[in-house]
Design a protein that fits this description.
The protein is 65% helix and 5% strand. It has 30 helices and eight strands. It has a four-stranded antiparallel sheet, sandwiched between helices. A four-stranded antiparallel sheet has the order 6-7-5-8. It is elongated, with a radius of gyration of 36 Å.
């Protein structure tokens, strides 16, 4: 049953970053609210690239027609050309001139006509009277209004394309938001089928079609996640199994160990199905980690079982000895690891607390399986004569013996080097800055997406639009509040000047000119001032310009409902209400903003909106990114501190002796100091995924010190080299399996997985090195000093 529900759990993989945040996070609440009220907030960008501009134009026309055939629950709307919209505004552009400027133009024309009349009056020609010539800076006026339309007028014939027409884009808007893989896949499949039917090569041999946008991002990330999970799981199972066979020299013992591990792992994910119901971007790769970590308990128990078997103990007796001698140390290790995972459960960040729940459950159940299922299988296999473990076939612990000899000969040097490295690592702590936090979430995307997928091709979409395509959506409850919020944001933008993080603020009011009746009255006055005899003196180009500015459509006022559907639809909610949406557009480079700048921008927008209408939804990718980073900065250190305290308290409670406990904690403290020092020295970035490596390193790292010191206590003083020979190999094998679990992520396509794998492997290496080399070296040096005394 555990296997069945594990499969169901992995089928419900949610890679949306919102799934990492608490359900109470403002970005999540705001996104849900905006999604309920607006038809679409995300899209699929279909990029058409060809040197044949005419072929590209024909293909975009045909593709748009095909996409418009889709049901509304598949594609909400299609955008690819704004020629009708441009013509609508061009026909009425005079109404968009400010009333004051129109009055100045009227006064200039009136004064100019009077000036021309006076200078051509014969009575004034010889009077010597100086007649001032009226002036108006038309260039300044043109510049003022050209800037407002330049973002749209650059599109050739109104098509979403570069000026040369070699790159074009068709936008298919997704109904709702990109929250489910099924919905986005349906849209992408419909678009891909339409492209295939049209056959781009038949339009031009060099035509290439690529995809970008939020829909494609979700599809690529989901595909990379699934591939990474499959590859990492296979790698871990194969390499760990081979490692067990090589180390234990017993195929059936390894089979028993792996089967018991699978039991514990499948129990874990079966419980997770009922407790959580899905996997998010952080918990998706826990399978490989639980296998790599959870096998450690069985390794220690199996190693002792085979050791007792080779000492000629019968199977039942060997099982009893191995359980009684390893249960305490492995249970401490399991609880320590479980508490490190469990500390994440006390955070609000779902990316942490769900990871913590599954990790804690996995450690406990894998330990239970190691001391129930594994002993049962070992006894069964031993009765069937499948486990051959005698003194004659005892494998030589070559690595462990070599390590013991090396430590014995160089104990003092190892201890001095360990101490020096620890001091250097401590000095590196002053390199800590807030810049250690990764704020560019693009760096955590799929490597393939960055190099040849959605992220890569988004640069060409940006080249076409030259603006941020997914602005922040503010959606208050009334139109009056929307107007106030927009006005205050525009004031803030003006106050901040050219360096403002706000590129533009738009409401539907910005598309409907104010004071239309007064402007029409002024234009009628201008028409009356311009007699036909004056117009015939103008050049054909100027006469055409006058006709365009004073055409019939300009003389008729219009309202918002007469706006083109492309504009009106964006500001219309599902219930039909209009005008409550405020769009705030950041610059293109906002994707690469450092954390402080991102926080400042989002806080400014939210504070401005809340001052008008508290709790106004502010939705978009940037608020989600900001809240994720804020959660990591708040919950990450808290979870790390809790994990550290939990491990320390656990060790003191179990050993109940300060000196003993400090020796057990010695290797952990040294290992994590080296770990932190390496992070600061090499400038490794911390993100929402690899932060988890910090607290769980405490739990996993204490494992090695506990196992070595527990055996040291059982064997008695002066026995550390024997412990290394007998237990060091098993401890190294535990570290090997854990490193394999983490290391399998280093070849992942998803760069967030890679970042976690790198940090986790680094923490594992520093902790196991401290446990196998630094702790024994210290004990040898201490014992030698005692003997010398």
């Amino acid at each position: 049953m555990g296997g069945y529900y594990s499969v169901l759990l992995y089928k419900n993989l949610r890679t949306d970053l919102e799934e990492l945040l608490p359900t109470t996070a403002r970005a999540v609440i705001d996104m849900d609210e905006v999604t309920k009220r607006l038809d679409s907030i995300d899209n699929l960008a279909i990029l058409i690239m060809t040197k044949n501009a005419e072929a590209g134009r024909r293909f975009s026309d045909d593709l748009a027609r095909e996409l418009q055939k889709a049901p509304r629950d598949v594609i909400a709307s299609v955008e690819y050309r704004i020629n009708k919209e441009l013509q609508f505004f061009k026909d009425r552009r005079t109404l968009y001139i400010e009333l004051g400027d129109l009055i100045r133009i009227r006064n200039y024309i009136r004064d100019r006509i009077e000036y021309e009349r006076m200078i051509h009056n014969p009575l004034n020609i010889f009077s010597g009277q100086s007649i001032p010539e009226p002036a108006l800076d038309f260039k300044a006026l043109l510049k003022k209004y050209e800037g407002k339309v330049s973002a749209y007028s650059r599109f050739p014939d109104g098509y979403y394309a570069t000026p040369d027409g070699t790159k074009r884009v068709v936008i298919a808007n997704l109904p709702g938001k990109t929250s489910g893989i099924k919905q986005v896949t349906v849209l992408k499949d419909f678009a891909a089928a339409a492209v295939q039917r049209l056959d781009p090569g038949s339009y031009s041999p060099d035509m290439a079609i690529h995809y970008a946008g939020g829909v494609q991002n979700v599809i690529e990330e989901q595909s990379a996640f699934v591939k990474d999970l499959e590859v990492s799981t296979i790698i871990v199972i194969v390499i760990v199994s081979l490692g067990m066979i090589v180390f234990f020299r017993s195929v059936f013992s390894t089979i028993a160990l792996v089967l018991s591990l699978f039991m514990g792992t499948l129990w874990t994910f079966g419980i997770a199905y009922f407790a959580i119901g899905y996997l998010n971007a952080n918990t998706a790769f826990l399978g490989a980690i639980i296998i790599g970590n959870g096998i450690n308990f069985g390794i220690i128990m199996l190693a002792r079982f085979l050791e007792e078997k080779r000492n000629n103990h019968p199977g039942n007796e060997a099982i009893g000895i191995s359980i009684s001698s390893t249960a305490t140390s492995t249970w401490i290790a399991a609880i320590a690891a479980g508490l490190s995972y469990g500390s994440l459960m006390l955070t609000g960040f779902r990316g942490f607390n769900q990871f913590g729940f599954i990790g804690l459950t996995g450690m406990v159940l894998c330990w239970i399986s190691a001391f129930t299922t594994l002993p049962a299988l070992l006894v069964l296999f031993d009765r069937w004569g499948l486990i051959k473990a005698t003194a004659a076939n005892k494998p030589r612990a070559v690595v462990a013996e070599a390590a013991a000899k090396f430590i014995s000969r160089h104990a003092t040097a190892i201890w001095i080097i360990s101490f020096a490295v620890t001091v250097i690592a401590l000095f590196s702590f002053n390199r800590y800055t807030t810049g250690i936090l990764e704020t560019n979430l693009t760096n955590l995307r799929s490597k393939k997406s960055i190099e040849s997928g959605s992220v890569y091709y988004s640069q060409y979409v940006d080249e076409i639009f030259q603006r941020y395509l997914s602005p922040l959506a503010l959606l208050p409850r009334s139109r009056g509040e929307a107007r106030q919020i927009a006005a205050r944001l525009k004031e803030l933008k003006e106050k901040q000047g050219p360096r403002s993080p706000i590129t533009s603020v738009q409401t539907i009011d910005d598309f409907v000119p104010e004071q239309q009746l007064q402007k029409i009255a002024i234009m009628r006055e201008i028409i009356e001032l311009l007699p036909e005899r004056f117009l015939v003196k103008l050049s054909p180009q100027d006469r055409k310009l006058v006709g365009e500015f004073l055409n019939e459509k300009t003389m008729r006022p219009f309202g918002e409902r007469e706006l083109p559907q492309l504009i009106l639809g964006k500001f219309t909610e599902k219930d039909g209400s209009i005008g409550k949406l405020v769009l705030v557009e950041p610059p293109l480079e906002s994707t690469y903003w450092p954390g402080k700048q991102l926080f400042r921008f989002i806080n400014q927008v939210r504070r401005t909106a809340d001052n008008v209408a508290p709790g106004t939804p502010v939705a978009g990718s940037l608020p989600v990114a900001s809240d994720i980073l804020s959660s990591v900065m708040r919950d990450g250190p808290f979870a790390t501190f809790l994990a550290f305290c939990a491990v320390i308290i656990l060790v003191f409670l179990l050993f109940r002796n300060i000196r003993t406990s400090m020796l057990v904690l010695f290797s952990l403290l040294v290992g994590i100091t080296w770990f932190a020092g390496a992070i600061f020295t090499f400038g490794l970035k911390i993100n929402f995924m690899n932060f988890i490596a910090l607290p769980i390193t405490f739990g996993i790292g204490i494992d090695y010190g506990v196992n070595i010191f527990q055996r040291y206590r059982l064997e008695g003083s002066q026995s550390i080299l024997k412990v290394i020979r007998d237990t060091g190999g098993a401890v190294a094998l535990c570290s090997f399996t854990t490193i394999v679990g983490y290391g399998s992520l280093l070849i992942a396509e998803n760069k967030a997985f890679v970042s976690f794998g790198l940090l986790a492997v680094l923490g594992e290496l520093t902790c196991v090195t401290a446990a196998i080399f630094s702790l024994p070296a210290y004990l040898i040096v201490r014992d030698r000093k005692k003997n010398a005394a």
